[in-house]
Amino acid sequence: MGYRTIEELNHRYGIGPKIPELKEYAEGTDFKSCVIRFFYNRCEGLEYDFSKNTDDRTGKSNKPGVIPFNMEKDIDRLCMQKAMERFLDSGCATDAFDVYFCYLEIFFGAYEKTRKMIEMLSEYEINGSALLMKHRDHYSHSVYVFALGLAVFDTSKAFRRAYAKAYKNKFGTAEEDSPEAANHFLKYWGLTALFHDIGYPFELPFEQVEAYFESANRDGYKRKDGRFHIAYTDVNTWVKFSKDEKDAIQTAAGKLYDTTDDLFADWICEKLAANKENYEILQNPEELKKKLQEKTASPKSFNYFMDHAYFSANILLRQILENREEALKEEDVDAVVAILLHNSLFKRTIAHNGNYNDEDNIPFPMENYPLAYLLMLCDELQCWDRNAYGRNSRTQLHPMDCQFAFRDSGIFATYLFDRSEQYRIDEAVQNKDKKGVKPYFEFVKENAMTDVERDIRKIVDLADQADQNETRLYLNIDSNLTDKKSVKRSVSSSRYMHLYDFAVVLNGRYVEQYKRSTGELKPGEYLSKEDLYREFDKLSLEYKMSNVLQAKEFANHLDKIGCFYSDVPNNNELLREFSKEQLIEMAKWEHIRWNKEKTEMEWRYADRSVYNEIGREILRLHELVINGFERLGENQEECGKEHFEQLPVEEKLKDGEPLNLMLEMLRQEDGVSIYQFVGETE
After folding, report:
1. What is the number of alpha carbons within 13 Å of residue 434 lying toward its C-beta?
2. Across all residues in the chain, what is the average pLDDT?
3. pTM of the predicted model, to two decimals?
């Protein structure tokens, strides 16, 4: 297991490349250990071309054709593993972006193809959700859901067995613990989890109107009264398949469908055919189709709620058909329909009497539809560390973290609440009014079980106790109070600061530097916008991520020199050009960041003479990497400063000069300007 091609090259050359190690994640049952172990142990050969060997040079690194193809794929997987590590450490949206970026680059071929639907969710949510009464983050939430699923797959033999049974022969082997099974799961679980909420912008306007009337008519207003609501009409023009789409669907599904509603209703009934007797509506696909058709135009049929999952499923299906080079597969439809099921369709339509709380309801089974089962489970579990945007949501007491232990085919979750809120909890108990801190009490055990766990057990099938035979998943939920950790935030902010665009331009500025040095560009000449994206696309995922990581750190570099960026005009001093001193100061911090990035990606120091003959990119050796940097711990920053001071001036300015060229671009493209705090000295 591990990184096969990197290991082969290490054994061949002896001096490199360095083999990644699991270290502290090897035996842990905690959330992060299980996720990292999934990438390291289970995903050997991810996206390999097994017709190629270590002597081929068709893989991309800093440019095309310099490393073995399968080595590039090993590094791609390492990029995603490291992106997940960063996200699980921070939980912030900018680190969630890294995970989305890696997934789309690996499985869709390019982030550019689907970036709009991802960025729309993030921007719309941030800018529009404050108008709602109840709303919490879905962007980082989706990455947490993705990570939870990876941890379940890594630790639950019951789930791996169910997945292998559902997709036998789809990944070349029926073995549940094979790398092929894990790689197949990573692709289609990623499709399911990362995009399950992309339709949320369709639900937001509906909820905004409801919130307005709830706020304006607080006395006696109830949603079920249906005094006023919005609906989407003429949706039939959207859900209808074109001829090309019909052909693609027929190839994947084996049948001809006219609309997504036809496909979805038929697919659900077939996937859950073994459970037809438990869910009456599944015995009549036409009745289920009618319910789907009512989703957008008749919210009153669903207690005046708009189901974002319906829109998410439709959007994702079209994105796959339009933007992915490979043909639609049966598993793609599985992922899409799992998304359709996850929010309310199963709970409020398919369940017994259309109510999962009905005492005769049978919880959703794992065996027949593991992707849908896992999404329902993980979506319910992921309720910690979510930014609260809605007016009521911001005042409620939500879990800020969760400690997991994944063992014995079970999930043991302890949700953590802010200890400083103890007074609110005491007041609620004393006044016998738990409304203001209701979420907290849902996680407090009563009669040996929390309300949250009781609710989840009504939705998905779970074992009553840890199952030593590992035939079903077990869940145990508890809660605790803990001290809240402080989080350092940069002063810089912008609604339009897209990391991808920033990274593309940042790389382009370096390319321009190089082309001027070779005479390909004259002084004062710049690459066109199209050329900037073409140059970026030549890079491997590792080098694309390097530009993204530098772009993310730009705000912190600005903090160091008393500056910040913003798209809102303010009274501070507008900066039109960085001084030489400012450039060198930022370059120093970039040098430290670059060393952290390189050593995390398993690069090591060596003199140029050591790697010149074989190749720097194959051996992953670099003369500017600080020798032993990964072992310095808290001393990395101080050592990085000393190392930087020893560099020649031209090397110091190399990372600073492109930043000057970006100032005007930021103003022109995104309306973002850089300011220096009044009174700050250089």
Report:
1. 8
2. 88
3. 0.94
